[in-house]
């Protein structure tokens, strides 16, 4: 039947690996948001919740709520760079909700935090694309073999290569 989407096997450990990767990506630009909104802890809380899950915590309402709160923080930020940094935090907390669907759209749950973080870094550097490219290179180096294996299960993911592999 056309339009059917198959499922992929995802363990809780796979989700923890993906979430740890996303949290590390978002954490790299957290200071961008905090420089813009020093009294707003929502993105920090979202990244903290992501790390908590990655380290063995439960995936529940509190994690989801912190992801949504980071998105709201993005909307209240004064600069575009701060908005992107807060979106990276939202994506980090949301990474725990990667769906076991073989759809290319699921890649955003894995790589979204890194992409938002790279854009935040670019904007801080006055839209210097080379800074974003360098940040993406660092993001790729953060990807553990387990994260790459999850990416490879998704459509188009077989092309994923971590530098040096």
Helix count from the secondary structure assignment:
8
Query: Which descriptor suits the 3D outline?
Result: globular
What ranges have pLDDT less than 50 throughout 5 or more consecutive residues? none
Structural class: mainly alpha
Main sheet: strands, sense, barrel: none
Structure description:
- It is built from 8 helices and no strands.
- Helix 1 runs parallel beside helix 6, helix 3 (42-54) runs antiparallel to helix 4 (61-76) and helix 5 runs antiparallel to helix 6.
- It has 165 residues and is mainly alpha-helical.
Keyphrases for this structure?
165 residues, mainly alpha
Break the fold down into its secondary structure elements and pairings.
Layout: H1 12-27, H2 30-36, H3 42-54, H4 61-76, H5 80-94, H6 107-124, H7 129-142, H8 145-152
Helix pairs in contact: 1-3, 1-5, 1-6, 2-5, 3-4, 3-5, 4-5, 5-6, 6-7
């Amino acid at each position: 039947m056309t339009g059917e989407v198959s499922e992929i096997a995802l363990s809780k450990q796979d989700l923890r690996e993906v979430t740890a990767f996303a949290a590390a990506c978002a954490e790299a630009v957290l200071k961008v948001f905090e420089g813009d909104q020093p009294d707003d802890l929502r993105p920090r809380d979202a990244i903290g919740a992501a790390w908590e899950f990655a380290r063995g915590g439960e995936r529940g309402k509190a994690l989801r709520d912190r992801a949504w709160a980071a998105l709201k923080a993005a909307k209240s930020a004064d600069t575009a760079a701060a908005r992107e940094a807060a979106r990276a935090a939202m994506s980090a907390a949301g990474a725990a909700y990667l769906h076991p669907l073989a759809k290319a759209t699921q890649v955003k749950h894995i790589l979204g935090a890194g992409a938002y973080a790279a854009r935040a870094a670019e904007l801080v550097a006055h839209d210097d694309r080379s800074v974003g490219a360098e940040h993406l290179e660092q993001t790729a180096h953060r990807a553990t073999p387990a994260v790459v294996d999850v990416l490879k299960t998704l459509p188009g993911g077989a092309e994923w290569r971590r530098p040096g592999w």
